[in-house]
């Protein structure tokens, strides 16, 4: 009431008076979203359309320009070129090796580290440390340790009378080595997700089950494991999709070798696109990868919806 | 100058009509209370006045101006929120000064307005504290202070006392009344507590399901509720409503032709000699509340009738007759609308 | 005397667990120790007996690293790129996250769905067209792709949803109070929503920084000159003329790249681990 004059004067001003409140809010929303949407269109949608387009063309070092060839690249990949199925098999082996190992270890570590005891933080810190380390550094250090005779691992093995293989030079061992070192690098992430889920389980359940005389193993099987279901599902899908993306780790440790023994899909796309400049073929591979990942995502969403 | 006019205001959320056409005049300096059961649209109506919700249709004027599409801060209104909504990262002083700063009020003027508001609300000692360091009542005061310093034309309150304990609520209620006396601004106050409404309001607006059931002074609403809903909503304990057939109207008194039920407020009923009452029944329960007792009387028809009784409470199970001053009788038609008191009082 | 009181049983149990964990920790911890120790060995000793303590401490490895290639410059590149990406991501994702959390407009749900769909798609899928686009605008062998792609890629979208989640938990009435106090929408975002979302901002900053710091595919594809390299690319570049790794330099350089991050990690491990937990639960 102090100065009604100023108050009234102030109330008179309304910038852009033709805008309704609703329009104003919508406009603000688009404005706030505009950088993200622009980036999304330029760096995701447009490239996705482009890659679909490329995949229908023959475009390589020889042709130097794109000529439309329909589905020939897909036909090539899926039907003719044995490389593709070799790569697909490698990717599958990599995923099937990595995902269960990663998840089992993550759960085990989480069970051990979800409680409170002296040193728990130290252990968590150690198991998580590789996650914050760059894949490049991790790959370099492990490559160093896994060298033939001179490598640390084989020297230790020699010390106890075992002659270790030349890990990264033999296809099967190389695949195993790549999987295991990748698991060690990333298991910390799933571990903390499991720890968070375990800590969210009310303690009453545990206490009640114990009062009824259930053993530790029974409690895990009947209570903990089912309650971890949603977390397990999320972790499984994230880890599976993540395993398809792995590039730097393999590039630095084995370069896809030996004998293409560790050549996985992400690497194959890079190789075809940027080393051999088979743009059309590489794009078809990229589309195949896109479809696989989308399928996995949809499965996850469907499962999660059913869950809730 | 700071009167309000709502005409044909409607609000629709998606497919749901939440406010279904409200017409209302608020005069300058009036204290208006919106009251109604939970979910009836009180907050929504208030937020439309504030500009926090857009108006689906209808017209809102504050003073002379149509305000439908004016931004909240440009309407000359201030709002006190139910949760107080104090900025947790600012001190009391900065909380109160925030709006002034945003509006470009000079520091000296800002300081003096904050000081003035703090003096009114007895906040001087708390200015450097953070909201988390305050009690509920203190936070409430800061929220009011923040509204005051902006010198708005209209104050809006959305259930400002509902987070306080009973004692503090009564205290703050009187402070808000005093504040209105002192500032003289138009105030609109939302509550679902009819006692708050009765004590504070110049004018009460009873809402139900997005519709205004009745507008009037507290006296009018209490004495002449327009329908059953208002009759039972205003007043505590709530009005007894019994079928006309169960009531023995005093000789010579006739209910209006379309009346089907009779309303009697518990505080108007009194025990009388057997055979001379308007209804009779058995005392089912007697609750002693200190100043009076609340009797639950089971009428012969089986309906329960509440009675506020002064003095010694009768034994449970005892048969009693109840009388009432005929001026305090209400009657209602089949659709719930009031149809005037029974008339034809016998002249002696 | 009964040897196995419940208390002792618990103690034994605990000791067993701790021992098991110690063994399990070896492959996680040892590579770091071995990296530091090998980075301090001479080129000859590095293939000698597997001793953790170097016979002769070759501190000059850490000097040579800088003369072999422009390592200081590369270090700086990684740092400034990561900081730029972090700042830009915070800005862009918190604006978009706010709009998705709070503003009502037609198409809001649809946009959310579109963005989610990009969340999971690996960079490898779109990297070819992105490469040609960058070449078109002359961004090859520059740092632009290393900044633009992460800000607007899956990482940026993940940040957007993380922010959105957090903004939804900011009390609505606080923001409305800000509006009544005269703040514009931008003001509400900047002066109320953002200050109240520090934990989410910190999580986004930590994850974004590390992600950029560790980025490999994009630098490999877009950058070719040594002065433009970032750390992950530079590390594997310490080789002799035939391409065989100079391990002592590679490991010294890796030590220089990894140890500062590890130190920060150990100091702020709680915050960092929580940030990852937050983003993972969402994903
Ligand atoms: N943003 C919204 N979207 C959809 N429906 C809403 C929204 N806000 C309120 N409603 C609905 O509108 C109706 C009125 O809500 P409002 O908050 O105005 O009630 P109220 O009278 O203030 O109730 P209370 O006393 O509980 O605060 C309710 O049914 C509510 O569910
Ligand atoms: Mg309300």
List keywords for this structure.
heterotrimer, A: about 300 residues, mainly alpha, MetI-like fold, two-stranded antiparallel ribbon, 14 helices, about 75% helix, globular, B: about 350 residues, alpha+beta, 6-stranded mixed β-sheet, 5-stranded antiparallel β-sheet, 8 helices, elongated, binds adenosine-5'-triphosphate, binds magnesium ion
SSE blueprint:
The complex is a heterotrimer of chains A (308), B (348) and C (283).
Chain A (H helix, E strand, L loop, with lengths): L3 H9 L8 H35 L1 E2 L8 E2 L3 H9 L1 H32 L6 H13 L2 H11 L6 H8 L11 H29 L3 H9 L4 H12 L1 H17 L2 H6 L11 H11 L3 H29 L1
Antiparallel strand pairs in A: 1-2
Chain B lengths: L3 E10 L2 E11 L4 E5 L6 H9 L6 E6 L2 E2 L10 E4 L11 H11 L4 H15 L14 H14 L4 E5 L7 H18 L2 E6 L2 H7 L2 E6 L2 E6 L1 H6 L4 H6 L6 E4 L15 E6 L5 E3 L6 E10 L4 E7 L4 E6 L9 E5 L6 E4 L15
Parallel strand pairs in B: 3-8, 3-9, 6-7, 7-8
Antiparallel strand pairs in B: 1-2, 1-4, 4-5, 9-10, 11-12, 12-18, 13-17, 14-15, 14-17, 15-16
Chain C lengths: L5 H34 L20 H9 L2 H32 L5 H12 L3 H14 L7 H9 L1 H16 L2 H9 L4 H9 L4 H16 L3 H6 L8 H5 L11 H21 L1 H14 L1
Adenosine-5'-triphosphate (ATP) binds next to strand 2 and helix 1 of chain B.
Work out the helicity level of chain B.
10-25%
Over the alpha carbons, how many angstroms does the gyration radius of chain C reach?
24 Å
Mean pLDDT of chain B: 89
In the predicted model, the low-confidence regions of chain B spanning at least 5 consecutive residues are: none
Major sheet size, sense and barrel closure of chain B: 6 strands, mixed
Task: Give the oligomeric state.
Answer: heterotrimer
Number of helices of chain C: 14
């Amino acid at each position: 009431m102090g100065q009604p004059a100023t108050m009234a004067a102030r109330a008179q001003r309304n910038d852009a008076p033709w805008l309704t409140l609703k329009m104003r809010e919508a406009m603000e929303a688009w404005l706030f979203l505009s950088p993200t949407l622009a980036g999304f269109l330029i760096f995701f949608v447009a490239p996705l359309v482009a890659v679909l387009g490329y995949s229908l063309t023959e475009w390589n070092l020889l042709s130097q320009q794109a000529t439309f060839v329909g589905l020939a690249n897909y036909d090539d990949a899926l039907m003719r070129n044995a490389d593709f199925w070799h790569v697909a098999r490698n990717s599958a082996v990599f995923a099937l090796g990595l995902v269960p190992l990663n998840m089992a270890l993550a759960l085990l570590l989480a069970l051990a580290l979800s409680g409170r005891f002296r040193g728990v933080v130290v252990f968590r810190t150690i198991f998580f440390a590789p996650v914050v380390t760059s894949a490049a550094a991790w790959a370099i250090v492990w490559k160093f340790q896994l060298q033939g005779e001179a490598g640390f691992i084989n020297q230790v093995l020699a010390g106890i009378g075992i002659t270790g293989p030349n890990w990264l030079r033999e296809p099967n061992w190389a695949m195993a080595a790549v999987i295991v070192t990748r698991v060690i690098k990333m298991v910390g992430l799933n571990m903390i997700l499991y720890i968070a889920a375990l800590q969210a389980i009310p303690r009453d359940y545990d206490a009640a089950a114990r009062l009824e005389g259930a053993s530790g193993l029974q409690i895990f099987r009947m209570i903990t494991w089912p309650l971890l279901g949603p977390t397990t599902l999320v972790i499984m899908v994230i880890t599976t999709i993540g395993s398809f993306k792995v590039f730097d780790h393999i590039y630095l440790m084995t370069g896809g070798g030996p004998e293409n023994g560790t050549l996985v899909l992400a690497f194959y796309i890079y190789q075809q696109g940027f080393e051999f400049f088979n743009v059309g073929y590489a794009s078809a591979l990229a589309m195949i990868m896109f479809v696989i990942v989308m399928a996995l995502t949809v499965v996850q969403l469907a499962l999660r919806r059913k869950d809730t | 100058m700071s009167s309000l006019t709502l005409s044909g205001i409607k609000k629709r959320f998606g497919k749901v009509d939440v406010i279904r056409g409200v017409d209302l005049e608020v005069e300058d300096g009036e204290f208006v209370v919106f009251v109604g059961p939970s979910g009836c649209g009180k907050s929504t109506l208030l937020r439309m006045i504030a500009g926090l919700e857009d108006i689906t249709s209808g017209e809102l004027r504050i003073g002379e101006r149509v305000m439908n599409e004016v931004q909240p801060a440009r309407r000359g209104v201030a709002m006190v929120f139910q949760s107080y909504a104090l900025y947790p990262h600012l001190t009391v002083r900065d909380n109160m000064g925030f709006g002034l700063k945003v509006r470009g009020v000079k520091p000296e003027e800002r300081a003096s307005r904050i000081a003035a508001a703090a003096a009114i609300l007895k906040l001087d000692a708390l200015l450097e504290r953070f909201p988390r360091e305050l009690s509920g009542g203190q936070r409430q005061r800061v929220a009011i202070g923040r509204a005051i310093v902006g010198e708005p034309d209209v104050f809006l309150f959305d259930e400002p006392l509902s987070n306080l304990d009973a004692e503090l609520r009564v205290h703050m209620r009187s402070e808000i009344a005093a504040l209105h006396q002192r500032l003289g601004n138009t105030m609109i106050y939302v509550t679902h507590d009819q006692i708050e409404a009765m004590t504070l309001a110049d004018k009460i607006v009873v809402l139900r399901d997005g519709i205004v059931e009745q507008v009037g002074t507290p006296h009018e609403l209490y004495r002449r509720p327009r329908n059953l809903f208002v009759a039972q909503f205003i007043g505590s304990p709530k009005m007894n409503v019994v079928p006309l057939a169960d009531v023995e109207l005093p000789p010579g008194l006739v209910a209006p032709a379309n009346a089907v039920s009779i309303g009697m407020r518990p505080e108007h009923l009194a025990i009388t000699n057997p055979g001379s009452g308007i209804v009779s029944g058995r005392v089912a329960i007697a609750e002693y509340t200190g100043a009076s007792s609340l009797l639950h009387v089971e009428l012969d028809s089986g309906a329960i009738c509440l009675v506020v009784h002064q003095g010694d409470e009768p034994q449970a199970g005892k048969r009693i007759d109840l009388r009432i001053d005929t001026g305090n009788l209400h009657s209602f038609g089949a659709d719930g609308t009031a149809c005037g008191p029974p008339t034809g009082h016998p002249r002696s | 005397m009964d040897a196995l009181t419940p208390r002792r049983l618990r103690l034994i149990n605990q000791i067993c667990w701790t021992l098991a964990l110690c063994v399990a920790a070896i492959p996680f911890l040892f590579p770091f120790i071995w990296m530091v120790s090998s980075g301090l060995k001479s080129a000859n000793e590095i293939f000698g007996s597997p001793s953790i303590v170097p016979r002769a401490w070759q501190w000059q490895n850490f000097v040579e690293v800088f003369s072999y290639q422009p390592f200081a410059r590369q270090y700086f590149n990684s740092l400034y790129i990561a900081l730029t990406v972090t700042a830009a991501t915070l800005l862009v994702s918190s604006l978009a996250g706010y709009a998705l959390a709070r503003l009502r407009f037609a198409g809001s749900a649809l946009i959310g769905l579109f963005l989610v769909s990009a969340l999971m798609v690996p960079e490898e899928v779109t990297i070819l067209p992105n490469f040609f686009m960058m070449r078109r605008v002359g961004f090859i062998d520059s740092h632009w792709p290393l900044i633009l792609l992460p800000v607007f890629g899956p990482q940026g979208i993940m940040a957007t949803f993380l922010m959105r989640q957090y903004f939804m938990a900011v009390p609505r009435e606080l923001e409305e109070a800000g509006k009544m106090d005269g703040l514009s929408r931008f003001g509400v975002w900047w002066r109320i929503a953002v200050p109240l979302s520090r934990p989410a901002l910190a999580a986004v900053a930590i994850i974004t920084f590390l992600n950029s710091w560790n980025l490999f595919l994009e630098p490999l594809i877009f950058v070719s000159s040594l002065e433009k390299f970032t750390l992950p690319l530079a590390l594997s570049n310490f080789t002799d003329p035939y391409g065989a790794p100079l391990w002592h330099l590679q490991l010294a350089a890796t030590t220089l790249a990894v140890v500062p991050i590890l130190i920060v990690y150990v100091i702020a491990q709680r915050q960092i681990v929580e940030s990852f937990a937050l983003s993972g639960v969402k994903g």
